[in-house]
Amino acid sequence: MKLMNGSKEQNIMSEMKDRRVTAFQGAMLAINVAMVSYLCVFIYVTTEQIRAHYSARAFLDNVVTIPADPKMNLIICLLLMGGLAVTFAVRHFWTNIPNSWTVATLIVDFVICGAVIYQLDFNYNGLLLMVFANVVAYVQDGKLKLMFVVLAICGYLVADYNLLSIYMPLYRVSDYIQYYSANAQQYLFSINNIIVSLNIILFIAYCVYVINRQRGTIEEVNQLYHELQTANEQLHEYADMSERMAQTRERNRLAREIHDTLGHTLTGIATGLDACLALVDVSPEQTKKQLELLSKVSREGIQDIRRSVNELRPDSLERLSLEVAIRKMVTEMSQVSDVKIYFETDEKHLKFDEDEENAIYRVIQEGITNAVRHGKASRIWISLKRVDGEILLVIQDDGIGAKEIKSGFGTKHIKERIEMLRGTVSFDGSNGFTVTARIPIRWGETYD
């Protein structure tokens, strides 16, 4: 009787444990279905509102790309999530399911999650946590489990929006949220963050429970829980610190963009006006041409400043290649001033990543501005060469130079731009003024 009672109690405990596993996995599935549905429905509804209010042009000016068909995207994602629900039902409600079928359903889960993440343009990758949790619970073979775990972790790390958006055009959910008012944005961001946090919390709790169930060692589970809790707190601290650093970098970047553009434009205008004052009595017709050129330069400068404020690239780089944009800038500055500027490069194709082109263009722009405004230079030489896999940029002028080089706004921004690309820069004011920068360019296939 005692043995029978003991066996019955073990069966009851096993059933309770299975119910808890089902409850955990069902909750994770429900949260992920809610998150995917929220993102798809939100993008679809927002798109319809943009169409209804005829504000598509203003919205498109501030985004990289948009979904081809939000409605179809919604339907596909819901169907795929329905597939996850089917595999969940097979594992939990099919009695005596063969191990090979369990592995097959996990593979299907992995493929479906990858498809959903792709449909969402990698704006949400929390589905892979659910796959990881299922692998921990169901796969018994050590090598097979390790393979699944590695795939899930690699997938989670690779399917990161911030990483992939560097290499391919992806739409961003935050762009759609920013379409609404400030108050609405707070609620929308809160909903998004709450669902993501719930998914992570359930994942951690589920892993703790499964490990406790499989190992039966409460002390180890508690230790792991405290380690996860500490790691989670550290991650939150790191995330807060990263966010503050990103905000600071963005403020500095915008300040540099506006300073470089405004300083360059005003320096050119001021120098051109000095030339007009010298020519007005001698050649009114030449003065008129000079004023027309100054008007054109000032308008382009205003457009460039607006683009900087809107967090876009310089106008010239938006329309032209890097080399053509630099030569255009050099030509315009030479025309509106008495300064002769010479630009040479031995590279056939100046094609780099966007951040690299921005930095090179802005450093040259700031170097010219400093040479004209502070150095009183009459000639400027700019050289751009490839040396030992790096870009060697040299800006030299015949101005008054500087015995003591002070860290002003312009030189500080040049240094910051180069250091952001892990490069080095030096200044020499002994013979005119020379800026020498070495930039470890990421020479990619597009360049070759």
Structure description:
- With 448 residues, the protein is α+β, with helices and mostly antiparallel strands.
- It folds into two domains: 203 residues, no CATH class; 189 residues, Heat Shock Protein 90.
- The chain is 70% helix and 8% strand.
- It is built from 15 helices and five strands.
- It has a five-stranded mixed beta sheet, with helices on one face.
- The longest helix has 62 residues.
- It is elongated, with a radius of gyration of 30 Å.
Task: List its salient traits.
single chain, 448 residues, alpha+beta, Heat Shock Protein 90, 2 domains, five-stranded mixed β-sheet, 70% helix, 8% strand, disordered N terminus
In short:
This protein is of the alpha+beta class. About 70% of the residues lie in helices and about 10% in strands.
Instruction: Give, in spatial order, the strands making up the sheet with the most strands.
Output: 1-2-3-5-4
Number of individual domains: 2
* Percent range for β-strand residues: 5-15%
Distance between the termini: 81 Å
Shape: elongated
Order of helices and strands: HHHHHHHHHHHHHEHEEHEE
Show unreliable segments.
1-17, 444-448
- Give me the Rg, rounded: 30 Å
What topology does this entry show?
Blueprint: H1 2-52, H2 56-60, H3 70-93, H4 99-119, H5 127-138, H6 142-158, H7 161-164, H8 173-177, H9 182-215, H10 218-279, H11 284-309, H12 315-319, H13 322-336, E1 340-345, H14 354-373, E2 379-387, E3 390-397, H15 409-420, E4 424-428, E5 433-439
Parallel strand pairs: 1-2
Antiparallel strand pairs: 2-3, 3-5, 4-5
Helix pairs in contact: 1-3, 1-5, 1-9, 3-4, 4-5, 5-6, 5-9, 9-10, 10-11, 10-13, 10-14, 13-14, 14-15
